[in-house]
Amino acid sequence: MTYPATRSEAVVDTLHGQQVADPYRWLEDEKAPEVQAWMKVQDGFTRDALAKMPGRDALAKRFTELFYVDSVTAPFRRGQRYFFMRTHKDKEKAIVYWKDGESGQEKVLLDPNALSKDGQVSLGRWVPSWDGKRVAFPLRPNAADEAVLHVMDVATGEWSKVDVIEGAKYATPHWTPDGKGFYYEWLPTDPSIPVDARPGYTTLKFHVLGQDPKNDVVVHERTGDPTTFLQGDLSRDGKYLFVSILRGWSENDVYWKHPGEKDWRLLVKGKGAKYNVIPWKDRFYVVTDEGAPRQRVFGVDPKKPERANWKELVSEDPKAALESVSLVGGHLALEYLKDATTELRITTLEGKPVRTVQLPGVGAASNLLGLEDQDDAYFAYSSFTTPRQVYRTSVKSGKVDLWAKVEVPMDPDAYTAEQVFYPSKDGTKVPMFLVYKKGLKKDGNAPTLLYGYGGFFVSMQPTFRASILPWLDAGGIYAVANLRGGGEYGTAWHDAGKGANKQNVFDDLTGAAEFLAKERYTQAKKLAIYGGSNGGLLVGAAMTQRPELYGAVVCGVPLLDMVRYHLFGSGRTWVPEYGSADDAAQFKTLYAYSPYHHVRQDVKYPALLMMSSDHDDRVDPMHARKFVAAVQNAKGNSAPTLLRIEANAGHGGADQVAKAIESSADMYAFLFQVLDVARPVGGVAAEGQ
Asked: pTM higher than 0.90, yes or no?
């Protein structure tokens, strides 16, 4: 391909005695007219190329059938009202509904489709008050993280003209029991504050409905440390207010007090451990990995909160990792991961086992959704071959009934999934899911898409993904590797893939690729890797470290310049996960794998599709721009290198179905083309086949 021209500059920094070249630093300044012009030309070049790829229109047609579906989420109760969301076959975005009682008439609460004519305004996490009379919700322009918080009267549908709060990027409303106000995390929008320093300015405030938000009282001051998160919480009865200071995803401190009190009390100082507190009826249920990498649960009396007085209720399970805990129907609901698949257990409030919830099969389920003093609860379940189903259960009796399910135009019996285990470079056994159409021949010719993440304690579970069906129908394999850095096996698994241990994650992906070839599932020229965000870093590192193992790479909203990542977006908050180039030892680790700095001139790289967003305020798109420029200008590389930029989209992409269809059609058309895959879509041969 003859790419649009990209100039390079002789920019070289000396960091801790190491010379670091940065020839495309000028592409960091997104507001510069030259950069804007470069982005427009690159995106246009890519879209022209993708539009001409055989089978793309047939893929778009199939994704239209798969993505426009009717579905409903599990409902939850506030007061006598029930709240839930629905997707509709003829709507771009999911709609929030409410009803009085279980059998009440469904009424629209919030319709994101009506928020703007062009769909550029997105709805964030909406939170009803405990009495169900009001709901607080953030609106996010261009699906970005930045948000403005609003309040609505549920019965009338009227939006308050007074209760409008800017600086709601990290805000979650924590309602008082009377519904007259809420605590929330607030981030100043002052443009004079450097973007990388803003997280350290987060405060916890209290808003009284009907009062000017500018007068909201600060109940916890900012930490001043941009590598931390500050999060608040309030018990349902309003008696206990909490603040958690998080240092990354492995450690936090917890403070508490009674609302109205001046001083905060330290509950626990996290030293290499994390704590989640669930307050109920003058007891704190503390979920922690302190002394238990797979987590356990303690009961704490707030009158005797000293660590020595904590009572262990649920001990660590050496064979399963405790993923989450909820208090429902007077019981503890425990969500475990056993080799990355879900197991739901119910215990008494003292931790005595009651039952294991019967799931439809081996797959992924949410924890129980319900109230502490209500027997009815709901959970969602899916697997690689089963679309999402919502179940209703009685905590007391254990009865489980199907409440709703998603109908997808597919034959679930046509596909199968298996779990395999393979060795990484250091001998660590890593699990991997493989999904494919029944009757697969292991002759090394199956096109394979390998997905991974490996970071931030995020677990990759066997959930349903409609987007992979055309790939499977074409004889492809979809593989999901449970890399270190995730939470599949608890804290030790995460710690083995963060900071100085980050190379383990890349080695785990390499091991997956080598296993797939060795076991005759596929071969290098038929193997593609795919990842986004931290997973984008993963595939970028894999591509630059072992390019010969892969035929294609799809890299989404990634981190790729690990020397300067902390200076952009929310980068400072990830220092506990990755480290910082400001530190000499951490710089050495980061520079050793930073993908942008390891693009070589004499290497033939796999075909690359870079998928970026123009309003990503979490991971700055400068990473995507600089990396694409470097790979396109690598003289020894002849494979396609394309940059696709989603307009009016944030880190999670756009939230419209139509844009998801276009994005998926482009991605799979690219993969079918560069891996030379025949393109039957939904059983019908695509054009030209």
From this structure: yes
